[in-house]
Amino acid sequence: MNGPEIHIDFAPELRLFVPTKRREGRSAVVTDGVSTLGHVVESLGVPLTEAGRLLADGREVPVSHIPVAGEFIEVLAVERPQKVPGAPLRFLLDVHLGTLARRLRLLGVDAAYESEDIGDAALAALSAREQRVMLSRDRGLLHRRELWAGAYVYSHRTDEQLRDVLGRFAPGLAPWTRCTACNAPLREADKETVRERLEHGTRTSYDVFAECSSCERVYWRGAHHASLEAIVDEAVREFGTAGTCPVDRAG
């Protein structure tokens, strides 16, 4: 670029996206004089999904703003909870976030998940077609224009990922109401109707069941109920109210 020089500063939360030399605070950027501020921000490494308000000399400007010489640009982080246009709030997770997808489904959050790598273009198109917020740790994917909405998942740890998503988007929670395998709603199931799909030990030890309305996976209160209940209780305590469902284990 060979045009107006501006100065830019990124919120601390966004500095992991930018080159090391820009992580200390305000730094100079030479622009081409025609590119939008949104383009400049992305060219420096920050997906617009992660950028909140943009300030030019203290006044808020849109991503379409063309920076002029001498302007001081501040790129703030997304405000939480983040408002997403449209309803209901739904998510799409890439191939690397399967455990997070299952945790969200455990809490009753609509979380579609691609278990195979279908490519960034296909994921972005699916996000747009189904109006789902794309959750990913792939920065390149979050730069794609086709995305309906997106968010970077900042941690490698599933428990921290879950808290990040719940804190950022504040989805309604309805634990124990969604299939953790395929994301469809659960329904109550009479023991006799699912008997043939149960192992002998399960048939003799449990009486309350549910099944997925789509894949017909059977759920009951299993040996690992306590660990799942702890996840649910912690999420509900911090982020929302609990729904009710008597089962949590798939056979």
UniProtKB/TrEMBL annotation:
InterPro entries: Mut7-C_RNAse_dom, Ub_Mut7C. This is Mut7-C RNAse domain-containing protein. Pfam families: Mut7-C, Ub-Mut7C. Residues 4-82 form the Ubiquitin Mut7-C domain. It comes from the Bacteria. It comes from Streptomyces mauvecolor. Transmembrane segments: none annotated. Residues 90-231 form the Mut7-C RNAse domain.
